[in-house]
Design brief:
67% helix; 2 helices; 82 residues; mainly alpha; rod-shaped
């Protein structure tokens, strides 16, 4: 069976990749912020929550992309029409 990805699966792959990139950006921002403010700052805590969120969302979207979703279209045979 041919494994072609649906348009929405391709979009979820791009979104998952963007989500992982955003989590890395939040990690860098948290590292810079940690050196100046520490972990008691509310922005540092929200950055940690953002990192967790983006990693989880990216993981789910990549798993959706890797799934082999069957084609549910009803195929009609022209010979059956009477």
């Amino acid at each position: 069976m041919k494994s072609s990805k649906n348009l929405l699966q391709k979009i979820s792959l791009v979104s998952g990749t963007i989500s992982f990139i955003l989590s890395i950006a939040c990690m860098v921002w948290l590292f810079i912020r940690y050196q100046n403010q520490g972990l008691n700052d509310p922005i540092s805590v929200s950055l940690m929550a953002s990192i967790f969120f983006f990693i989880c969302v990216g993981g789910v979207l990549v798993v959706i992309t890797k799934a082999n979703i069957p084609d549910f279209n009803i195929k009609t045979n022209p010979q059956d029409k009477d």
